[in-house]
Amino acid sequence: MSGRLAAASTGRTLYSEVVEQIEAIALARPLGEETMLPAEWELAEQLGVSRGTLRRALAELEAGGLVRREIGRGTFVNPAARLRRVVWERLAEVALPDSRFGYDFSSFVPDFAGSERCAASVRSLDEYRRARTLVVTPDNSLERLREQALEDGKRLVVFTYGMLRGARLLDPAELPPGGAVLAATLDGMERAGRGLDFAQLLTSGPIDLVVTGAAAVSREGVHFGKGHGYFDLEWGLLSEVGLVDATTPVVAVVHDCQVVPDRVPHAELDAICDVIVTPSEQIRCEPLPKPSGLVWDRVPRQFLSTRPYLRDARQASRRRAA
Amino acid sequence: MTLPPPPASQDGLAPGRGGGTGEPSSALAPPLDPQRVVREQVWAALRAVARPDSRFHWDFSSFIADFEGSEACAERVRALASWDRADLVFITPDNSTEAVRHRAIEEGRRLLMTTYGIRRGFLYLEPGRVRPGEERYAATLDGMDALARPVTLAEISRLGTIGLLVTGGSAVNLEGLRIGKGHGYFDLEWALLSEAGAVEATSEIVDVVHDCQVVDLPIDRAAHDVRVDWIVTPTQTIRVDAGGHPLGKVLWELVAGTEFEQLPPVVELARQREGGAP
Question: Which residues of B, range 65-84, sit inside 8 Å of A by Cβ?
Fold first, then answer.
């Protein structure tokens, strides 16, 4: 019995070492290219493990999104997943933990040292000055910006985490004096904000500006989220219902270490930013085409059953088609 | 301290304050255990009066929900004699205890709280840290993270005695036994604070729950379960004859190999036991 346990435990250790080694190989590739890993037999030989162990390790990495296996072609490294992993390592130096998720960056976009400078910088943008109603994502990095926007008298539409309970409206006219600091947090907007059902969302506009955080953003303006696709979904929904279009400015607020200089291959549904604001600079991006509307067969089925806005938007789109 | 096996995330129930993603679990349930049945019945009733969490929404397996009437609970806690005596209070990071934290901060008491899942240890908030008008913000988990400072067990042991501890929970019976959410966080918190010398056998423990969370059912008691002295609901203050609390101890044989082993205060205590540097 103890012999079997020992073998099992050694097996587990070896296997997780193989996962780590393949990860290291994948992460070492240049950021800007979609690259392939060596063939399975070659990797197995290089790492000194059986094909079975190697395949299990690859399957785990595939489940985590870092690689994609195509039968008959080989194993490809997913550039967006690799980008996130590389940036998260840098971000750990400056990031602040979340009250629930701690340092698990795959679950939230962290606040960072210098985010108050980003908020001040956004204040100097014409797009911000002109804006009366903003959509701001529920990222911790935008807490200071939400507080400032409320102090500046702007109305905010903020999605709940993962859009599961739709969005909330934060209206400075409805806040008590000094209430902006509470309202700007995710916990606080539950108390200070007002829930918007789908009909209320549709009449909450016009939306003059969208501000988002990101896991990473390429210098040309491609937005990479924490991996759930929530911002792509939010933008998709807003454009589906006509609250935003290609002319609505999108500002990404990130730390300098989250801006990737390379051109990164991206999918047509990845969200696009017009301006990137970091603690030390403002980057105006060359305009790239922004995705428009929701592609229904690309929206995960589970999202439809758990997110009332998506259900309602789909019904509306079917009515239009009929 | 109750230490069931680490959460089997596929059952969608176990994590308690320990973590989830907010995504509803779609997995089917494994065979029923009686505590689980009670917990699920209570959650079904709680849904009508609960307030969702900013990250976990309605996923009660990931957090202890605030509910309608928690402000009335806070007033009832304030009416306890032990509240008057407690200059230093420990309050769990549950949403249901936010109103009590709000009162403690307003009244200028020193406040100790754990971070979510104890993962980043304890936080300590001193009265001078909160600007007037921002007490409500400070009472939230987001606000505590911004304003309170992390403290080690060694620092906690120098803060004085905690006269009152306030916790939330999934359910509690009239003997003052709480139904765990699967992790036994409060039992571990009691054990850690005991080992730090921060609590005494006479320190009082209050469980803040909604009336629908008080169950009239026997609950099997594990040796390390901590009974509460008071159950406070929006409509009642129930004195439980707890007969004092034996001070807790971290049960190392149960901690070994679990995620508890990595929690900062547990690591600190383990080092101290080995005689290494604190």
Answer: none
